[in-house]
Amino acid sequence: xxxxxxxxxxxxxxxxxxxxxxxxxxxxxxxxxxxxxxxxxxxxxxxxxxxxxxxxxxxxxxxxxxxxxxxxxxxxxxxxxxxxxxxxxxxxxxxxxxxxxxxxxxxxxxxxxxxxxxxxxxxxxxxxxxxxxxxxxxxxxxxxxxxxxxxxxxxxxxxxxxxxxxxxxxxxxxxxxxxxxxxxxxxxxxxxxxxxxxxxxx
Length: 202
Hints:
Layout: E1 9-10, E2 26-28, E3 31-34, E4 37-42, E5 53-57, E6 64-67, E7 69-75, H1 85-95, E8 117-124, E9 131-137, E10 140-145, E11 152-164, E12 167-176, E13 185-187, H2 189-192, E14 196-198
Parallel strand pairs: 3-14, 5-13, 6-12
Antiparallel strand pairs: 1-2, 2-3, 4-5, 4-11, 6-13, 7-8, 8-9, 10-11, 11-12
């Protein structure tokens, strides 16, 4: 959304983003105004408290994606006991509905499905390079169309508390190796919806 005609009011928090040219964070119509590039903070990861991670803000992206390494996915359901990683995600996608329908967007784990899967993964401290190991319940799947004949590639999605300015959003994020990308975090609609405007002229 491009904001050009309305006046800004200073947000409660005046923490300044290094990417901003206009000073502190602003609100418009009770939503945070964000630039194309921002620092994002992991609000519920103690070893990353106060550490900003550069992120690209993309209003065209449906999901939020974060850089993660050593991703391990396991389920306590005996049906999936011998599977892990992408093979487990594929089996889950094919077991409870048509994968092309992305049934997991409506509901995911239920008592009947008893998926009961957890994801262990490493975040990388942007200053020290230290690997920070986290474990979260598998919240759902993310299906990405692979190149050529690779079909759908499945990524694990977990819930994390991400912060920018004076807002913190508990949001679904998909985990993937983003080392080939310019920014370790891509902020999409799962974070922005009802929370923020994006002004690319900032």
